[in-house]
Design brief:
Blueprint lengths: L2 H25 L13 H9 L4 H12 L6 E6 L4 H14 L15 E2 L13 E5 L22 H21 L1 E3 L2 E3 L11 H19 L8 H19 L8 H12 L3 E4 L5 E5 L5
Parallel strand pairs: 1-3
Antiparallel strand pairs: 2-3, 4-5, 6-7
Helix pairs in contact: 2-3, 5-6, 6-7, 6-8
Length: about 280
């Protein structure tokens, strides 16, 4: 190859090399700087895109709101909820309860507090466990079920502090409704009225969540509608236990709890005829 031809080839190759390198840089831009560890929308958005930051975000949220979670040990990122499942198994070993008390469909839970009946009112502090679905916007599960995205700090606080925090406190103190007290001592078993307890706990958690939800500024219509719909379902589930002769204390608790909602109408035999959350206005 003549020198002139060699130089021309080298210039072309060099240009191609530079263009190729530029293309690589275009395809793989530098990552955006990591936000400071503060409870703000920027850090939440960063945690949603970067799983390694999710526990940091949840810890920051817990620190900011721990005065409203006096008996909560922490908020734990637990994708797949294997840690929570281990806690449930430990409770089963230490306190004994039916296998039906085990967590079901763990992969479909956004966040949860392990609180089987045998520990209710035992003054045990608990964690709030947060699944990957909390951070994955509009996640779709294997069966096609889709959950709405948690898109703002206010929605995160509504779900984790107002809703799951109610479960923490009920597990620690027991459920106190006027002169009715639901604890491991007053609900004898096994067998335990498991479905009743789920309905009662969810009704209480949605009640607390919905009472506060209008105080937040960044609540989407989708999040509000989803919460109202789930709250109404919890009320409907609990209304099934207003005629429950097998557990008279559960029956009394159902009537008292339902009466705390602003506009829930039951027929004399306990059948739910109307539910409307007038306190949302």
């Amino acid at each position: 190859m003549r020198r002139r031809d060699f130089l021309a080839w080298g210039a072309a190759a060099g240009t191609a090399g530079v263009l190729g390198l530029w293309a690589l840089l275009e395809e793989d831009p530098k990552p955006e700087p990591r936000p400071k560890r503060r409870l703000n929308q920027s850090f939440f958005d960063y945690a949603r895109q970067n799983p390694e930051a999710r526990q940091e975000f949840l810890s920051a949220l817990f620190e900011a709101y721990k005065k409203r979670l006096p008996h909560c040990s922490g908020i734990v990122y637990d994708p797949g909820l294997a840690k929570m499942d281990s806690v449930i198994k430990r409770y089963k070993h230490d306190y004994g309860f039916e296998s039906s008390e085990d967590a079901e469909n763990l992969d479909r839970i956004i966040a949860s507090v392990p609180n089987p009946i045998p520990i209710v009112g035992k003054h045990l502090e608990n964690n709030i466990f947060v699944n990957y679905a909390f951070f994955d916007a509009g996640v779709v599960f294997k069966d096609g079920t889709r959950i709405s995205a948690i898109g703002s700090i206010d929605e995160a606080v509504s779900l984790l502090v107002d809703h799951e925090g109610t479960h923490v406190e009920d597990a620690y103190e027991g459920v106190h409704l006027d002169n009715v007290h639901i604890t491991h001592e007053t609900i004898s078993g096994p067998p335990y009225p498991r479905k009743f307890m789920i309905a009662l706990k969810e009704t209480r958690a949605y009640y607390n969540q919905l009472k506060r939800i209008r105080s937040y500024k960044s609540i989407s219509d989708e999040f509000l509608e989803s919460t109202v719909r789930s709250g109404a379902q919890a009320v409907a589930d609990l209304s099934q236990y207003t005629n429950y002769p097998e557990f008279p204390i559960a029956e009394r608790a159902a009537w008292i709890q339902l009466a705390k909602y602003s506009d829930v109408t039951l027929s004399p035999d306990g059948e739910l005829t109307h539910v409307r959350f007038t306190f949302l206005k």
